[in-house]
Automatic annotation (TrEMBL), chain A:
This is Putative aldouronate transport system substrate-binding protein. The keyword Heme does not apply. Keywords: Signal. SUPFAM superfamilies: Periplasmic binding protein-like II. It comes from the Bacteria. InterPro entries: DUF3502, PLipase_C_Pinositol-sp_Y. It comes from Paenibacillus catalpae. Residues 1-31 form the signal peptide. Residues 32-57 are annotated as: Disordered. Pfam families: DUF3502 (PF12010).
TrEMBL record, chain B:
Residues 72-290 form the ABC transmembrane type-1 domain. The chain crosses the membrane at residues 12-39, 76-96, 108-132, 160-188, 209-231, 271-294. It is found in: Cell membrane. Belongs to the binding-protein-dependent transport system permease family. Keywords: Cell membrane, Membrane, Transmembrane, Transmembrane helix, Transport. This is Putative aldouronate transport system permease protein. It is a multi-pass membrane protein. GO terms for biological process: transmembrane transport. It holds the Pfam family BPD_transp_1.
């Protein structure tokens, strides 16, 4: 009897463990099941026969083009999709094409798209970028080469993007089509205009283009406005402001220093070893110590604009809006930032990008290997480069329901807010010819004219390495190790929480141990080969 | 055929077990065939079968960083500490729960103890953040500030984190283990205790001489299972509770977070498979070893 009791206790606990473990598993199972059902549903929706890709006169078989792109969930997605399909059917019956919008939430993008590719799920148009694993996708064979398709079905793409394909080529073939948009950016500072006026601040010092000259303004705020954070982070000079103003980046820690070096120099150096990096890290450390920067700057998901909105912040370092006559140090009202902050904001550019290889691969549309009819996908992509109506449907939704046109600009329908309108996103930069888009109410109606002008300026200033593409395969493991070494220091240095005197040497030592010299040597080797081949 | 006869004799039990066995097969055995991906350079075009074999190439990245040993050390030490503290506290908690005689109270305490186990790690991360936020957090604002102490930048100071993570892990997991032990304790025959009381044994004596020895097999099973996972860190704990702050890496980087970050850089499935395989192999070896040791010490307590 006793023995039975004893062993039954053991048995009972084992069963309990197993039951709990199994319920845990079945929880996972359910989501898997749902996903595969959804996939199955998609498969059956998609027409099975690839269409004949011959003459245009011949009526094509119906085909559903699945578009996969990152976006926040939109509650009215279905009605927009229906509207797009009605429009496609009415305007381009000869293409007999429908679209299926398959947005994926930003947080799940990496996992889901990897899985979709690995499991050979059928989809057609696919948003990609170098920062979303473009190289890996090409390498793994997830994307189709587009050269022939583009030549045959992409005349409107070629009309605006012809000169910018080189950076997206891998092994001589093109795998991604760059969104037609601004060719670069500008970094600088946003300031709360009310506070600038209150203390009648002199902004002329910022014509130097140096973020250091912000210090006096921050000090004024610190001394007089105890409730306001002078510089609201996450917005760090050691991000794009440093990179774009100091370097032509290559990969990982390899870069060419363009600040005060001979324009014909192609010496690859360490990104973290330039004098400017040290200067800016010192500056941030000083500012952090002085209490000019908020201490929770590194919290994931922290939105600096929310602090400005609440009247708790004064300045913010970041990417500037592209306005008419962009110039370093010029003070102008920033319309989009003012909308975002709910108060009047001014912007002062401190740096303007040069034409970089990386920018051309930062926003692209590709066609998946699993597409049953790549030609049709290319035709649809081409429409996004020529048809304003289609672009507007995709970007702003259905007129009257999701937006109203006011003086030729996009406004929210009466009584609606961005939260309850059902379809509101700013992903114009993901697809098509941006210059065809409407502007939003409050924006400069000439926004896209300004873009064209800005592009001329950027194009005229190509980076030394423009057109060079680094092949990371030979130093793949070193790049992982360097990235690992960086994680412990880079965020702390750029936010000013770590003392550069102490930590920068530590970072460099860790990078050395991780093989940074090998990466730099490899980059130099590839750069030299590229120069020899291109006569630079 | 004694086996067949046995099966036939207990056919009702066998039928009852079949759904579970199928489930186990689908969930735990089928995926094993993916192991060979660890040795391949997966290419979507060539497919799973057609991709090139690359030998141990995929394993290299685990040791590419000279931090490899630090990461492995962290993983094992954290898990060992968690295991020890968890077991001791869970057994204690189970014994205490068993002493609660009023049914309503007993149910309440059991539910309360197991509740943290169901809280998502993302939420736990923010609960911890509520305490440790450098500007508004409870500890800096309501404890250190009134005491006129300098606020601590928790997410930039690696030294505190071994303690913080241990506390969080204990809070989250101890209730679950306690319920398992409680189930074992309830199964103990009351006659033992009656006899002990008649002989005048104190509560403490009853605990050390009856309760603990009788639930030892359960403790061993749970420990063996945990030892098998000693190479697998709780990703949620080390990633979410630290808010993925890079500055804490010196004390908080474990294999799972390292692999995750490496995959963010490369997006390579082969690397993930190789890490998973390595963890499983080490876990397997450890389970066999520990079971062997247990068998040497006391034969009837070994798992197999």
């Amino acid at each position: 009897m006793k023995l039975v009791k004893h062993s039954s206790a053991v048995l009972m606990s084992v069963i309990l463990i197993l039951v709990l473990a199994l319920t845990g598993c079945s929880g996972n199972n359910k989501t898997n099941d749902e996903a595969s059902h959804a996939n199955a549903a998609k498969e059956t929706n998609a027409s099975s026969e690839p269409a004949a890709t011959g003459g245009d006169a011949k009526k094509l078989d119906p085909y559903e083009v699945v578009m996969v792109y990152p976006d926040a969930p939109q509650s009215d997605l279905a009605s927009v999709q229906t509207a797009m399909n009605d429009y496609l059917n009415a305007a381009y019956p000869e293409l007999s094409m429908t679209v299926k919008l398959n947005p994926i939430d930003w947080g799940a993008w990496g996992d889901k798209t990897n899985l979709m590719m690995a499991s050979n799920e059928k989809f057609d148009l696919f948003f990609t970028a170098d920062w979303l694993g473009y190289n890996q996708q090409v390498l793994k064979g997830g994307l189709l080469p587009l050269d022939d398709l583009l030549a045959e079905y992409g005349p409107d793409i070629e009309a605006v993007e012809k000169d910018f394909h080189e950076p997206a080529k891998r092994g001589g073939k093109l795998y991604g089509i760059h969104t037609h948009q601004e060719l670069g950016g500008s970094q600088g500072i946003y300031l709360d205009k009310a506070l600038v006026d209150k203390y009648s601040m002199d902004l002329s010092a910022l014509k130097s283009g140096k973020v250091e000259d912000l210090e006096l303004l921050l000090q004024t705020i610190k001394e007089n406005e105890p409730d306001v954070t002078p510089l609201v982070a996450p917005s760090f000079p050691l991000d794009a402001y440093y990179t774009s103003g100091t370097l032509d980046t290559i990969a990982s820690a390899a870069a060419i220093n363009i600040l005060d070096t001979d324009p014909s120099s192609y010496d690859v150096v360490n990104f973290y070893e330039t004098p400017r990096y040290k200067e800016l890290a010192d500056l941030m450390y000083k500012w952090f110590k002085a209490g000019y920067v908020n201490k929770d700057a590194l919290t994931p998901g922290l939105d600096a604009w929310k602090k400005i909105q609440a009247g708790k912040g004064f300045a913010l370092v970041g990417d500037m809006e592209i306005l008419a006559d962009m110039e370093i140090g010029s003070v102008s009202k920033a319309p989009n930032a003012s909308i975002k902050a709910g108060r009047e904001m001014i912007q002062i550019p401190l740096n303007i990008d040069r034409l970089q290889t990386g920018k051309m691969t930062a926003t692209m549309q590709a066609i998946s290997k699993t597409s049953k009819d790549p030609a049709r996908a290319m035709m649809l992509l081409n429409l996004f480069f020529k048809d304003q109506k289609l672009l507007t449907l995709f970007n702003f939704g259905v007129e009257g329901k999701h937006y109203a046109l006011k003086n030729g600009q996009i406004a929210l329908p009466e009584g609606k807010t961005t939260n309850d309108v059902g379809f509101y996103h700013d992903i114009m930069w993901q697809i098509g010819n941006q210059m065809l888009n409407y502007t939003r109410e409050g924006e400069d109606p000439n926004k896209y004219k300004n873009y064209e002008k800005f592009n001329e300026m950027i194009s005229s200033r190509a980076a030394r390495t423009f057109g060079f593409i680094f092949d990371p395969e030979p130093v793949k493991n070193e790049i992982i190790a360097i990235d690992n070494a960086n994680k412990a220091f880079v965020d702390g240095l750029k936010s000013g929480q770590l003392n550069p005197e102490e930590n920068l040497p530590k970072l460099l030592a860790k990078q050395k141990a991780a093989g940074v010299d090998k990466v730099i040597a490899e980059a130099q080797k590839q750069i030299d080969a590229w120069r020899a081949a291109n006569g630079k | 055929m004694p086996v067949l006869r046995q099966l036939l004799k207990h056919r009702a039990l066998v039928i009852l077990a079949i759904p579970g066995i199928i489930m186990l097969f689908i969930n735990n055995y089928l995926p094993m065939f993916g192991i060979f991906l660890a040795f391949k350079d997966l290419n979507y075009t060539k497919g799973v079968w057609g991709s090139d074999w690359v030998g141990l190439q995929n394993f290299k990245f685990l040791f590419a960083s000279n931090d490899a040993w630090m990461i492995i050390k962290h993983t094992i030490l954290y898990n060992a500490v968690f295991l020890l503290i968890n077991t001791v506290l869970a057994v204690l908690l189970a014994i205490l729960l068993n002493e609660v005689r009023r049914k309503v109270l007993s149910k309440f305490f059991q539910s309360a103890a197991i509740l943290p186990n169901f809280v998502s790690m993302v939420i736990v991360g923010y609960l911890v953040y509520g305490f440790l936020n450098p500007e508004l957090g409870f500890i800096n604002k309501s404890i250190l500030e009134p005491m006129d102490k300098e606020p601590i930048a928790w997410y930039a100071e690696p030294d505190y984190w071994p303690y913080i993570l241990t506390i969080v892990n204990t809070w989250k997991t101890v209730g679950y283990s306690a319920i398992v032990y409680l189930a074992a304790i309830i199964g103990i025959d009351q006659e033992y205790y009656e006899a002990a009381r008649i002989d005048g044994a104190s509560k403490w004596k009853q605990m050390t001489s009856i309760t603990v020895p009788l639930i030892t097999p359960v403790i061993i099973i749970l420990t063996l299972l945990a030892v098998g996972r000693i190479f697998n860190a709780d990703f949620g704990l080390f990633y979410q509770a630290t808010m993925a702050s890079g500055m804490l890496k010196e004390t908080t980087e474990v294999i799972d977070t390292y692999v995750y970050n490496a995959l963010l850089v490369t997006g390579d499935t082969g690397l993930a498979s190789s890490a998973g395989l390595l963890q499983s192999v080490v876990g397997f070896v450890l389970v066999i070893t520990v079971n062997y040791v247990v068998k040497k010490i006391s034969k009837e307590n070994a798992l197999f």
